[in-house]
Amino acid sequence: MPLFDLPLDQLRLYAPDVAEPADFDEFWSATLKDAAAHPVLGDVRPAQTGLPLLDTWDVTFAGFGGDPVRAWYTRPAGIDTPLPVVVEYVGYGRGRGLPHERLTWPVAGYAHLLMDARGQGGQYGSGGDTPDPHSSALGGPWPATRGILDPRDYYYRRLITDAVRAIDAARALPGADPDRIVATGNSQGGGLALAVAGLVPDLAALIATAPLLCHLQRAIEITDAPPYGEIVNFLAVHRDAEDAVRHTLSYVDGVAFARRAVAPAHFGTGLRDNVCPPSGVFAAHNHYGAANGRPRRPAREIHAYPFNHHEGGEAYQVRRQLAWLSSVLLADQAS
Questions:
Q1: Which helix (H) or strand (E) holds 177?
Q2: Under 8 Å CB-to-CB from 333, ≥6 apart: which residues?
Q3: With contact defined as beta carbons under 8 Å apart, do 83 and 75 qualify?
Q4: Would you list the DSSP string of 305-329?
Q5: Which residues, 6 or more positions from 36, have their beta carbon under 8 angstroms from its beta carbon?
Q6: Catalytic residue, candidates 112, 187, 279, 287
């Protein structure tokens, strides 16, 4: 994929006006209040992984509407002190998979909660275990278009609520330090982590690589790669639905969440990424913390990879994330 978005010098200054519905905050406050009416933590059962240096639990917590959401919780074995928890969200089409698949964070000394994605898990990876009982609303067959004609029915309202509830669940898990909870993810997972940063005021840190759901109005105009292409295909058939779709998307735009965030943040993007275009990632980074009501914006940084597509910096970016998070949490302890 050749370079197709704005040049890097323009991206570094790119802070477009992104339309927000007047009731954005009320919409999310009411949604999360409804979810909080359900006790968050359900079953927490030991899982056998064959990895003696790690302890893993199969966790169920209450997400949107009290629906059960599955997750893997993993900690370094033999450590009794409370640990920071890195809550990770998975990419589009993936489920939580098997507990031994994602070990970077627990091997680095953190507790790790990996949330399943409701109604996904069938496109790649090792599957998922969380159904979506609310998926019959009008819209297309893909997650990105389920219920897209009304923000109350939209799939990402449910998944973002699950992501926030995963933070609440992490605080309640054994061996977790409730004051040091980190949200992270790549692609869809990065978009969920970014939404969490805008909705959870006491998050310790955000790590978002190639986040989905950013500057959505532009994304559906400049790329037809999935999953944005699924929205494009839906509108190609439902030609009279554009206004309703754009209205729904305005409630889940990562730029709106970014503006409200207060936690320090680490971003990454590939400049040839047509799956999650870099202009959306930079828009979220450049707006980050601008409307959080605090006198100073949170610390943030972004790393761009000029010759990479959706894979971005891969292991190079992870190395940067590990060093950055260690410095952020140490600085937080020192203060």
A1: strand 176-186
A2: none
A3: yes
A4: ETT--TTTTHHHHHHHHHHHHHHHH
A5: 168
A6: 187
Model confidence pLDDT, tens digit, residues 7-17: 999 999 999 99
Distance from the first to the final alpha carbon of the chain = 45
Residue-level length of the chain: 335
- The answer to whether residues 47 and 72 touch, using CB atoms and an 8 Å cutoff, is yes
Establish whether 92 is an annotated binding residue: yes
Q: Cα dihedral angle (257, 155, 98, 184), rounded to 10 degrees?
A: 0
CATH 3.40.50.1820 fits 8-330, yes or no: yes
pTM above 0.85, yes or no: yes
**d(Cα 264, Cα 23) in Å, to the nearest integer?**
26
Number of H helices, E strands in the chain: 11, 9
Pick from 178-192, 200-214, 216-230, 288-302: least confident: 288-302
Look at residue 332 and tell me whether its pLDDT is greater than 80: no
Q: Are 75 and 112 in contact, with CB atoms under 8 Å apart?
A: yes
Both structure tokens of 254:
């990562």
Is 273 catalytic? The answer is yes
In which element (H, E) is residue 74 found?
Answer: strand 68-76
Hunting for tokens 């754009």 — which residue is that? 246
Rounded to whole angstroms, the Cα distance separating 283 from 190 reads 14
Model pLDDT for residues 112-142, shown as the tens digit of each residue: 999 999 999 888 889 999 999 987 766 667 8
Radius of gyration from C-alpha coordinates of the chain: 19
- Strand pairing category for 68-76 and 41-47: unpaired
Q: Which of 67, 266, 273, 279 is catalytic?
A: 273
